[in-house]
Amino acid sequence: MSDETTNGAAAPAPQEAAGPAFSVEKIYVKDVSFESPNSPAIFNEQGQPDLQLNLNQRVQRLNENVFEVSLRVTLTCKVGDKTAYVAEVDQAGVFGLSGLQPQAIDVLLGTQCPNILFPYVRQTAGDLIQAGGFPPFLLQPINFDALYAETLRQRQAQAEASNDVASAEPAGNA
Predict the structure, then answer these.
(1) Which domain of life, per UniProt (predicted)?
(2) Farthest-apart Cα atoms in the chain, separation
(3) pTM, whole model, 2 decimals?
């Protein structure tokens, strides 16, 4: 009984380190930009605003088990042929992933990480737009699982196209 640990918190640590792990190490704003090139005249323009959304995700491996995921959103609002504003937010996070198969890492980087970053992007973009003198804007949810599935379909189509080209070349030379 004298060998038993009264504080059981220390005992499970070696087992936890051996299993799969996913951690959020840091979330930060990498880049922010807001432009309203036609202010203040744009505030008097009449017409239906046209809003365009551009979404881009980038993954960079920092070391064996640590990745930076960057989610960049660019919102361009035009009224007629005049730009009302351009808001750009590049939100990033550092994520630790260990003890996972490469396919599981790819899925987490393509779905879970951007889902974690998205609320920060939405808040920052909304604050920028409102601070620019425009009505409040709430970026609608994005289905990163569906975007990831589409990325997989595109990868598969490219791989099949590469295989078709490779298998057609020898036949053409015969």
Answers:
(1) Bacteria
(2) 81
(3) 0.79
